[in-house]
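**User:** I keep going back and forth on a fold encoding question. It is easy to fool oneself when nobody else works the same problem. Could you pick a protein and write out its sequence and tokenised fold? Could you put it straight underneath, so I can go through it closely?

**Assistant:**
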Amino acid sequence: HIHFLEEEYDTALFIYKNKRLSLTNSGALLRKRLLTMKNDEKAIKEELKSNYHGIETLSIGVTMTIGEYAIVDKLSDFLNRHPKTNIHYGNTSQLLHLLDNGQINIAIVEGNYPKENYTHKKYRTEDYIAVCAATHNFLIGQPHTIDDLVCERLLLREKGSGTRDILEQSLIARGMRISDFIHYTEVENMHTIIGLLKKDCGISFLYKIAVENELHSGVLKEISLDDFRMQHDFDIIWEKQSIFTDRYISFCEEFI
């Protein structure tokens, strides 16, 4: 089968090295394109089954932060116009898995993802900040850098969350890790993190939009740091080379 495929596509698809068979760059590309075709076929079957020919059968994945704080109004308006649409909530890692396996058509994500694998369109750009209770007293006085915060309790999302991944990548760029914080607590729900912040149970790094009300009311405050100024995009993504790309672009135009 390997020889047949390589002859058919006139390129080496596999390499055997150190007793291990792995894909070449061409092999990885072919695999990705074939998976896209397979997922498109699933979408076609669903479209035919529903007797619709628009994007009524669209399945959308939304990360928790975006879905809870950034797009509630637009999402509800879209659902009212397109009642057959399915919505899946999850963290960035979970949504990428669903997208790659054809279980959703589009994902609206925050955090980092392999952009070379997906067609993407920016939805909006948001501030990513450090936050604590307005009454919080820092253990070593007013902090000026992230390193000054390592003695504080860090409240953060679970692994696979885009919000957490942004923090981890930012720390790596500074030669730091999550484990450098003396105390940290993993929470799978942003509402719980905000609740713990309001009870002065630690500090956190998150999207400003998630705590706008608390910042405005003075319950929480932004921690101003000399070495931390960050913004990050919320992106709408789908599989590259999908035959439904025009429809997904239409969704972007309507949604944005």
